[in-house]
Amino acid sequence: MGFSSALQSRAAHEALIVRQDAELRLMETMKRSIQMKAKCDKEYAISLTAVAQQGLKIDRADEMQGSLISKSWRSYMDELDHQAKQFKFNAEQLEVVCDKLTHLSQDKRKARKAYQEEHAKIAARLNHLTDEVVRKKSEYQKHLEGYKALRTRFEENYIKAPSRSGRKLDDVRDKYQKACRKLHLTHNEYVLSITEAIEVEKDFRNVLLPGLLEHQQSVQESFILLWRNILQEAAQYGDLTADKYKEIQKRIDTVIGSINPTEEYGEFTEKYKTSPTTPLLFQFDETLIQDIPGKLQSSTLTVDNLTVDWLRNRLQELEGAVRDCQEKQMKMIEHVNGGSPVANGSIISNGSNTSNGIQSNKDSLCRQSKDLNALRCQEKQKQKLVDMIKCALNEVGCEELPSGCDDDLTLEQNFIENGYNNEQQRSNSTSSPGLGIMNELMRRGGVLTLLRGRGRHFKRKSTPQPATPMTRSRQGRFNKLQPRSQSLGSLSISLSTNRPLYEEEWFHGVLPREEVVRLLNNDGDFLVRETIRNEESQIVLSVCWNGHKHFIVQTTGEGNFRFEGPPFASIQELIMHQYHSELPVTVKSGAILRRPVCRERWELSNDDVVLLERIGRGNFGDVYKAKLKSTKLDVAVKTCRMTLPDEQKRKFLQEGRILKQYDHPNIVKLIGICVQKQPIMIVMELVLGGSLLTYLRKNSNGLTTRQQMGMCRDAAAGMRYLESKNCIHRDLAARNCLVDLEHSVKISDFGMSREEEEYIVSDGMKQIPVKWTAPEALNFGKYTSLCDVWSYGILMWEIFSKGDTPYSGMTNSRARERIDTGYRMPTPKSTPEEMYRLMLQCWAADAESRPHFDEIYNVVDALILRLDNSH
Ligand code: ADP
């Protein structure tokens, strides 16, 4: 059934128009989608080209020469590039398809108009006749009524008139005849118009309308045909199974298939083939013990009362390890052989048929046999140590153990020179040195009681008089000692030991070793400090003598303190003895104490600081508002958690070490460090507004552009100063800046800073603030001040976005990827154009194209000036 017979009604005609409108809309939608698809495909082609280019950035140096895998990869990437080009071509063709759709839509619109006009035209004639019939009918009715009335009148007059004549009757007759004539004429017109209407209606229904509809159907069907062809074309350009792609895929498969594991290293092995390596020789260095009388023998274990427990423990551990190795081997063999251990401990192949299966089975056998060999080696190595210890213990048998503890030997064993290599011996010894000094002191009532309680006066041996007690003033107490070259006779000094050790000017608390080494510059310079090892506190005498030497103060069984010489009741006395006697601390080191080095200005005492309230939480511990007892100054104090390992504590103090040398209004100031006891602390100026990031977020409504620019200028001033000092901050971000009164910004948090022109990170990049870090630092670990410039750009963005998170909605790795392909964050709302331009300059991919802080400062300063003048 076609349009001509089925769609004649008015409703069908209207529905056909509506349908055509809908089709036009569908066509528009298709056009938009195909346009979008073309755009997507183009972008995909661009990304794919980038992927291929990235993939081709491979090492072309000699190392991979002859490698099939490298060659295949290159071909693979080339094919990817072809694929990208094909995608691009197809995308362009899709755009042509879109144009065709546009034309079709225009034609269809015209056809719709023509149909409507034609339909209206033929319908108009019929409508006109219909109206005519109605009109004629009403005329007919009107004349009929007139005729009837006149006829009645005429009949009345005719009856009444006696002679059937008269003027009145003639008049009525005349009117009656006229009306009769009119009626008959109207009747005829009515009849004619009905006849015409019948004819026109018949033609409309049987000829004109069907003709129009039939034509319309054929027009619409031809549009559909064109439409279908266009869609077919569109689909064809998106067909991923098209021959072109198949060919590319086939070539990729072929190049990858050409990788052959057995040939991969052929050329390489040929090039580097060498004869097997000669064994390394490990020999006991006899010179180590040439000065040590008796007990320590080369390549022989020493068994005595100092070592026997340790040896037994070690033996147990090693035997356990041997058993462990054996069990693991048995399990492995059982597992591979399907649960049945085999007598000779070998692995039997259980075979597999498929080629992949054979390969993976072969690999897994190879791996298991390698693991098994590794376990056997481990077992053998441990067994060797077990035999050696057993043999040594057996030799001693039930005899009383030799004492390792005659005075000379004890001292030799307990002094640590140039490092803490005797740790194990110390902690396992049965004699008192095994206990840390602080533990020992605690056991006997604590350091303070012990040291305070004595109240001794210690006189220089060679100087009989005077025995003046040392003043409690800190100022240069030891420094008042005259140089040794001067007559000893003229030097008279005495020592009062009734103060705690930590009050001595030359006691530096837990100052890290790097700092200690920095303080001791000339032979004979010395200081005393504390070190915490394995949660045990030890007091160490550090001396500059042919390098730096560190001696642990030993505690005797009676609770006295000593090095190689006689014991003393307090550490102060021991140190004074060494100083006055001019005897070497140990014979081997020859180190003589000449000049005590006192605490520096910034080495505060923990008791100088009163912590008031917590104001923040840092990476290492809480941050407090505090008061300096001496000056009543409000300060900020960063504390370091006691439980952190030494390495972390050193890192914590790094910030203090760096800050110590800087003095700039936009760099947070260091007041001191407290390392006399735990927790170690860094004391800094208190910056009242706290962290910039929090400040921005809290005050997002009240900040003016002028204030934001001022913040940028402050940060640039601080960074300009740091750059001039060759300091790379490495963690510049709003969270690491502080805000003071008047919105002034200070750079803080120097935990990651380095004082170098260029700093290359080699130990992994675990805690890197990725979204703030320049690409060259992320990709190659290379840090310069220009990396700080990149971070400064992000800081500017944070300031203008009032504390938003950069690259929000992206993970670190996504942000990194996008930056590498040229993406940069858009400008935050209401940022002055020049400031955004500056941000973009800071984010130049090539570090050398970024401005230095000097330039940044000048630009921001000039912009502020301009702004101020314009108001
Ligand atoms: P960390 O370097 O250990 O991560 P931060 O320097 O980030 O520690 O300090 C943590 C928080 O303590 C900061 O966000 C800030 O709120 C507060 N804070 C740190 N230093 C000061 C200071 N000098 N004045 C005021 N508040 C500070």
CATH superfamily of the largest domain: Arfaptin homology (AH) domain/BAR domain
Q: In CATH's first tier, which class of the largest domain applies?
A: Mainly Alpha
Q: Give the uncertain stretches in residue-range form.
A: 341-345, 348-353, 397-496
Separate helix tally: 23
Output mean pLDDT: 82
Amount of beta strand: 5-15%
**What would you call the shape?**
elongated
Largest sheet: 6 strands, mixed
Report the C-alpha radius of gyration, rounded: 51 Å
> What is the CATH third-level topology name of the largest domain?
Substrate Binding Domain Of Dnak, Chain:A, Domain 2
Tell me the strand order in the biggest sheet: 9-13-14-12-11-10
Bound molecules: adenosine-5'-diphosphate
Describe it.
This protein has 871 residues and is an alpha+beta fold. The chain has four domains: 3-290, Arfaptin homology (AH) domain/BAR domain (Substrate Binding Domain Of Dnak, Chain:A, Domain 2), CATH 1.20.1270; 411-596, SH2 domain (SHC Adaptor Protein, 2-Layer Sandwich); 603-685, 2-Layer Sandwich (Phosphorylase Kinase, domain 1), CATH 3.30.200; 692-870, Transferase(Phosphotransferase) domain 1 (Transferase(Phosphotransferase), domain 1, Orthogonal Bundle). 53% of the residues lie in helices and 10% in strands. The strands form seven sheets. It has a six-stranded mixed sheet, covered by helices on one side. Strands 5-4-3-8 form a four-stranded mixed sheet, sandwiched between helices. It has a two-stranded antiparallel sheet with strand order 1-2. The longest helix is centred in the N-terminal third of the chain and has 93 residues, at 68-160. Mean pLDDT is 82; it is low at 341-345, 348-353 and 397-496. The protein binds adenosine-5'-diphosphate. Residues 615-620, 623, 636, 638, 668, 684-687, 690-691, 736, 738, 748-749, 751 line the site of adenosine-5'-diphosphate. Residues 609-864 form the Protein kinase domain. Residues 453-475 are annotated as: Disordered. It is an enzyme of class 2 (transferase). Belongs to the protein kinase superfamily. Tyr protein kinase family. Fes/fps subfamily. Its EC number is 2.7.10.2.
